[in-house]
Amino acid sequence: SQELEQSPQSLIVQEGKNLTINCTSSKTLYGLYWYKQKYGEGLIFLMMLQKGGEEKSHEKITAKLDEKKQQSSLHITASQPSHAGIYLCGADDSNYQLIWGAGTKLIIKP
Amino acid sequence: KAGVTQTPRYLIKTRGQQVTLSCSPISGHRSVSWYQQTPGQGLQFLFEYFSETQRNKGNFPGRFSGRQFSNSRSEMNVSTLELGDSALYLCASSLRTSGTDTQYFGPGTRLTVL
């Protein structure tokens, strides 16, 4: 079965610094989703990637899917307190269900 | 468009009781998926409903059941509650016109079982 591994598990970053979160799959990714979650709340959709080499940006967040479609990275530039939360990657499995990474907890130090 | 709504937001029950959670999808979305989220297990898929039919099911016991109505609203029921059922229950809706389709999540229902 397909598994998604996220790294790091947690991250503490000084405000204004850049950071990267990775999501690695044991199988080829056919649809990779990034979500953000504030503690105890629902997931907010950030971006979806499908094609190898695809890159999308929204404000200061950029997500990429590698050419082999087995790894995705989420990069935040000039981090702000509003970026704090849990970042989750999800991927379509062969039954078109979403499987999920364990999440990366991001803390922004002022 | 209004987002996905879930009711109630918080619920406290005791072991052995049953509970029903409700989810109203985004207008026009026919697929509703339910997830359980706990600190130890992360986000786990419960089931998906599409046009009133259960299309996919995760690996949960039969105490967890759901249904979908003709207006796409969905309910999830958990019978004979156990302490381990304490979790954040999330529902997500999507168009599901193709295999890959973005899911939009509600705020969740926090269930505490005492």
Please explain how this structure is put together:
The complex is a heterodimer of chains A (110) and B (114). With 110 residues, chain A is mainly β. In chain A, a hairpin with a 2-residue loop joins strand 6 and strand 7 (61-65). Chain A contains no helices and 11 strands. The radius of gyration of chain B is 13 Å and the shape is globular. At the A-B interface, strand 5, strand 9 and strand 10 of A face strand 5, strand 9 and strand 10 of B.
Please report the number of helical segments of chain B: 0
Unreliable spans of chain B are: none
Structural class based on helices, strands and sheet pairing of chain A: mainly beta
Average pLDDT reading of chain B: 93
By DSSP, the count of extended strands of chain A is 11
Helix residue percentage of chain A: under 10%
Oligomer: heterodimer
N-end to C-end Cα span of chain B: 37 Å
Strand content of chain B: over 45%
Rounded mean pLDDT of chain A is 92
Give the strand tally of chain B: 11
At a glance:
The complex is a heterodimer of chains A (110) and B (114). Chain A has 110 residues and is mostly beta strands.
Task: Write the SSE topology.
The complex is a heterodimer of chains A (110) and B (114).
Chain A: E1 4-7, E2 10-14, E3 19-25, E4 32-37, E5 43-49, E6 55-58, E7 61-65, E8 71-76, E9 85-92, E10 98-100, E11 104-109
Chain B: E1 5-7, E2 10-13, E3 19-24, E4 31-38, E5 42-50, E6 53-57, E7 64-68, E8 74-78, E9 87-94, E10 104-105, E11 109-113
Parallel strand pairs in B: 2-11
Antiparallel strand pairs in B: 1-3, 3-8, 4-5, 4-9, 5-6, 7-8, 9-10, 9-11
